[in-house]
Amino acid sequence: MVKNNDYDKVVEIFKALSEPMRIKILDVVSCRELCACEILECLSISQSTLSHHMKVLISCDLVIGRKEATWMYYSINKETIANIHNILDIITSKKSNCVCNVQRKNCKK
Amino acid sequence: MVKNNDYDKVVEIFKALSEPMRIKILDVVSCRELCACEILECLSISQSTLSHHMKVLISCDLVIGRKEATWMYYSINKETIANIHNILDIITSKKSNCVCNVQRKNCKK
DNA sequence: CATAAATATTGACAGTCATCAATATAATAA
DNA sequence: TTATTATATTGATGACTGTCAATATTTATG
Q: What is the pLDDT of residue B13?
C-alpha cells in the first residue's frame, strides 16, 4: 500500500498529464530544450494559456524552466519520468500487507 | 511525435489516474481480485461513487470487471499498465522528426 | 527615458467532474 | 411471490479547470 503523501505527489503528476495539450507540450519538449515562443509556434493556443500549462508542468517537476534574458527555456525532467515508472510499478503490484485483507463486516459474501 | 489518437487513449488513462480515490482503488485491486463490496469496505465513499469510479477504470481498460451472480469482481489489467509504460517512454524520448524543427516565424530569437 | 519583445498574471466564463441520496435493476433465497 | 443483497443509474450540486483577452512585468535596446 502506498503512503498518502506519495499518492498526493503522483496524483498531481497524473493530473498534469491528463490534459491533451500538456501531453503534446511534453512530447515536444522531450525533443530538446525549447523557449516558450518556439513551443507556441507548434501549438494552436494563446500565449497566456501556454504560460499556464508550463506553470502546471513545472510545479509537478515534469518540466524544468530556465530563464535567460527575456526568454524562458523549458526541458523535460527525466528524473520525474523515472519516478512515474517506479510509483506505477508499486501501485500496480501485489502487496502482502494490503488493506483488502481486513475483516469484512458488511459484505455477506 | 505521437499520433493524435494515441494521445486520446493515453489522456483518457491519465485522466482516470488523476483522481486520488481511483489511484487508491487501483492500489487495492492490484493485490488480488476483489468484489465491489470488499473494495467499498477499504474506502470511505458511498456505493454509488464507487460504482462510478469502477466504470471509469473499466472504460479505459485499467481494470477488468467480471460478473458472477450478484457480485462484480474487479482485477487490474496488467496489459494496460504495460502500455502506459511504453507510451510514456515514447512521449518522453527524443524524436528526429519533431514538429519543433519547423521554421520559426514569429519568434525573434 | 521610451519602445519593443517575451512572458506572467488577472478576471471572466463555459464545461467537466466527484460526490451524494434516492431510486432502479438484477440475482438469489425463503 | 416476497424479501434481501449487490450493484447500477439518475439527478442535483458544488468545486475545479482550460481557455481567452486584457493587462502587467521583466529585460534588452535605441
A: 98
Assess B35–A contact: CB distance below 8 Å, yes or no.
yes
**pLDDT at position B7:** 80
How many Å apart are B25 CA and D2 C1'? 36
Q: Do B41 and A78 touch (CB under 8 A)?
A: no
User: Per residue in B33-71, pLDDT tens?
Assistant: 999 999 999 999 999 999 999 999 999 999 999 999 999
Q: Is residue A108 part of a domain?
A: no
Residue B33 lies in a domain: yes
Please judge whether A41 and B106 are an interchain contact, meaning their C-beta atoms are less than 8 angstroms apart: yes
List the beta strands (DSSP E) in B55-109: 63-68, 71-76
CA distances (Å), A49 to each of A26, A43, A46, B9, B77, in order? Answer: 15, 11, 5, 23, 35
pLDDT above 60: residue A48: yes
Residue scoring higher pLDDT (B68 or B102): B68
For an interface test with A, the pick among B17, B74, B84, B105 (most A C-beta atoms closer than 10 Å) comes out as: B17
The reply to whether B5 touches chain A by the CB within 8 Å rule is no
Give the domain range for residue A34.
4-101
Domain of residue A80, CATH code: 1.10.10.10
In a 13 Å sphere around the CA of B29, the CA atoms on its Cβ side amount to 27
Please name the residue of chain A whose CA is at the shortest distance from the CA of residue B5: A20
Distance, C-alpha B19 to centroid of its chain: 10
- Does the residue B46 lie in any domain? yes
